[in-house]
């Protein structure tokens, strides 16, 4: 068997190009032209094909390595060689791949008429030499008419079978026309765009000089196939100090192809490759996650789809940071809040309850509360009033059925209470609140809050709620808009009670006013329903004798 060392071919002078993907593994039997590696510079990615077929017996590269022309890629046991070739077996031959590894990409040259004085001239920007006569596809158009571009800003991304490449603006200027659309097949010399480019007498004069001597800021006239102005013009990988496309969804040809096959929007895929490059593995992980989420019902297809992701930011660029692991509860909260926020059209209504008498009564019960060993806070009163309102206005005691045809009317009154714990937000549920006394509720809410803070709630303790109360009354604030705890359809936010002047018809009197908000799911509840529910609840708190009726 003959073994050959496969080397990195001519990269057009580019050096230290990143390995984005290694497409083969030791033991693989490969064919000539099969992709071995995907390499990427700032401006282009390209696949390095096998110069011949055979079996990979050793690999010299890993993802993330930087390679230059002549770097060793792998050892290939050549296909079809007989054992009689054992002469060559001992001396491992280093061969240059026969096929050109990448298609060449030259800087686009602006075709223009030389101008005699300072002026803005409209100039065509052609597709540079993309190598070969095959058409290449436009996979991204990065500009639109009216865009002001800096020299080097990306105009379009082209992709052939083997490489994707960004075509940069050859000079600063304004886009006057865009001549290509995504999906177009183009050849060297086709016009990408027309740009209004400022030219000066000096640059115009220089423009008539040989291209290699023309100054950088102004575009040099050159035939579209000719090498462009700077040192990278005839390289196969455009200059690495040009800015690359710095957007989510930047991926090599292999990854783009896979994304297209699977219908994946690359901007949604979290990238793990060098310089935020989306790899094929990232796409597979994304698809796997989406399928799992849909199948487990965690992310109904209708929720979140089409919502652009929040871009990842490297905060360390701005100062010292520390990565803190999210607790399990915090992660569940992330999911629940996103789900409710995205699915539920929220409306929030505000009101103040006059709890002057309630507070007088509560304080008068302090001694008895101590004897009973419980603390009588406003919460049990709020629970009781909410339960009464849920019974009076059953439109609040429902959940929408997933079939889109029904709502589930609940005949029980279980109320959740948001508890702030060291591990995060938890919502234990107090059952049959309508049937319990204030003392029972005081005791049960205290037990549940203690259990939540100790991390001892069982799943059952947090299930079955019809409505939630979130009280920040002990902390402060004038009001907040709580997020409905779906599949419940309403939630009450309680803020801090304060003495305020209230007009009683003849004078202002000091009253203890409790700011309340009710957020509701407008799919299930109408504004008038909420008006009735909330007015009744506030009336109960303002005159707690009514709770007895
Ligand atoms: N206005 C003024 N004072 C209030 C009040 C209000 N609305 N609500 C409670 N208080 C007072 C209480 O009367 C008590 O005072 P005293 O000790 O003088 O009687 C004090 O504040 C402390 O109350 P508490 O917090 O111990 O008890 P609570 O029954 O009011 O609340 C609980 C229990 C579990 C709801 C609460 O401790 C809690 O965790 N709240 C946070 C909920 C939360 O995080 N919500 C946000 C969710 S969305 O992010």
Strand content: 25-35%
The beta-strand count equals 28
**Helix tally?**
10
Please tell me what the overall shape is: elongated
Q: What is the subunit organization of this protein?
A: single chain
Bound molecules: oxidized coenzyme A
Sequence of strands across the biggest β-sheet: 7-2-4-5-14-13-11-16
Determine the N-to-C terminus distance: 97 Å
Describe this structure in words.
The structure is a single chain. With 549 residues, the chain is α+β, with helices and mostly antiparallel strands. The chain is built from 10 helices and 28 strands. The strands form 6 sheets. Strands 7-2-4-5-14-13-11-16 form an 8-stranded antiparallel β-sheet, with no helix packed on it. It is elongated, with a radius of gyration of 35 Å. The termini are far apart. About 16% of the residues have low confidence. Bound molecules: oxidized coenzyme A. Oxidized coenzyme A binds next to α8, β22 and β25.
